[in-house]
Design goal:
The chain is of the alpha/beta class. Helix content is 39%, strand content 16%. Helix 1 links the parallel strand 1 and strand 2. Helix 1 runs parallel beside helix 2 and helix 8 packs parallel to helix 11. The longest helix is centred in the first third of the chain and has 16 residues.
């Protein structure tokens, strides 16, 4: 594998060790390991963080390694986004894997090929490894398609894309006015309401995360993400110590290999696949919006 890999860990050394085992199959020449610092009010967390740091010894296939070990805790949002910024201070493009992301071995060849193919194409924002959409909802016959949504369970991108990212998105409506937001968010009132509400929550820093801001950047740029028509990623983080993935959703697909390095397909949105994604994964339906409004109200009042 020619593309460098950023590994992002915190306090789950057992999961991070599994991620490293999967990365070993790709044998990337350059690996970056970022580990957030411990929280002072969590007994035993310093030892878990140190165990993650010590996993640098598992990067044993002769790769060049750089590390970013934080002394204090930045949290999910600034910790992860800061690690990615550090990565792109050194690299023009690369793969990003958090500590619960297990990729199929064929992911590496696919990511390499897509990073090279679309390196200079501003229409392409990122390379997804995760696919939720079933074959019946996909329009084209190729091995991949284009989607509005960058999905960060095993993904890759370029420095040029990350330069469009901002953790603080106050004032996002000025950058993405309604006439552009309507098509960028999916072209239905439900999807417009969904993403507008999510971006408003992030503008207030109601949730400690970083990936909704990435979706905002993609929609503002009007750029799309390469998405495989098989699923190349397992998220192993559905367990009690997870921050955002305590409940395993029913739309997850089993991991399958990419049969070959994909042939090029036209750079255009698969609207039918994206419509399924908006409804079935993100809840851009009347019923889904009602449930999300109730949960958001609890956050704001709690």
């Amino acid at each position: 594998m020619s593309a460098p890999v950023l590994l992002i860990g915190f306090n789950r050394p057992d999961l991070l060790a599994r991620v490293i085992d999967h990365v070993r199959a790709g044998r990337p020449e350059r690996v970056y390991l970022a580990v957030d610092g411990p929280r002072p009010d969590r007994p035993g967390e310093a030892e878990s963080v140190r165990a993650c740091q010590e996993l640098v010894r598992g990067l044993d296939w002769g790769c060049r390694v750089q590390t970013l070990f934080r002394e204090s805790n930045l949290g999910c949002g600034r910790g992860v986004s800061g690690a990615i910024s550090w990565f792109f201070e050194h690299e023009e493009s690369g793969v990003i894997l958090e500590d619960d992301i297990l990729v199929d071995p064929t992911f590496f060849g696919y990511a390499d090929a897509m990073l090279d193919r679309y390196r200079d194409d501003p229409r392409v924002f990122a390379v997804n490894g995760t696919n939720f959409v079933p074959p019946s909802a996909v329009t084209g016959p190729g091995d991949y398609r284009f989607s509005r949504i960058p999905i960060v369970w095993g993904w890759a991108t370029w420095r040029r894309t990350w330069q469009q990212y901002s953790f603080d998105i106050a004032g996002w409506r000025r950058q993405l006015p309604l006439r552009r937001a309507w098509p960028a968010m999916g072209g239905t009132w439900q999807s417009l309401a969904l993403w507008s509400a999510n971006f408003d929550l992030m503008a207030r820093h109601t949730i400690d995360t970083w990936d909704l801001q990435l979706v905002r950047a993609a929609m503002t740029a009007g750029a799309w993400s390469v998405t495989p028509n098989v699923n190349l990623v397992e998220n192993a983080g559905f367990r009690d110590d997870a921050t955002h993935t305590q409940r395993r959703p029913g739309y997850l697909r089993a991991v399958e290999p990419m049969p070959r390095v994909p042939d090029p397909v036209p750079v255009r949105l698969d609207e039918r696949a994206d419509a399924w994604l908006m409804r079935s994964v993100y809840g851009a339906t009347t019923r889904g919006l009602a449930g999300q409004a109730w949960r958001a109200a609890r956050r704001l009042t709690g």
